[in-house]
Amino acid sequence: MGTWKKGRLLKGLASSFELPEDVILDLARITIVGDREIFIENHQGILAYGPDRIRIRVKRGEIIITGERLKIDSLLATELVAIGRIEGVQFDRQRE
Fold first, then answer.
1. The domain spanning residue 31 has which CATH number?
2. What does the DSSP assignment read for 26-90?
3. 0.70 exceeded by the pTM?
């Protein structure tokens, strides 16, 4: 079954059973608190890390956080918390 068809099937199941799509499709869940903290669930690792940019791998590409004095405050297998002055969050999506 193709990736597109599988994703569409899982999305339909999530809707039918009233389940969150991010759980069924293993999507990243991002919570931003003001411009000082970002919490990312379902990440797949850190690609690059510096005080003005953090690149994080997710299932469908990567998330790029830009700002000042950025640092990783907490890192678990699938959860990450970064703090600092967050100026932007960008999604760089892989082609399917």
1. 2.60.40.2000
2. T--EEEEETTTEEEEES---EEEEETTEEEEEETTEEEEEEEEEEEEEEE-SSEEEEEEEEEEEE
3. yes
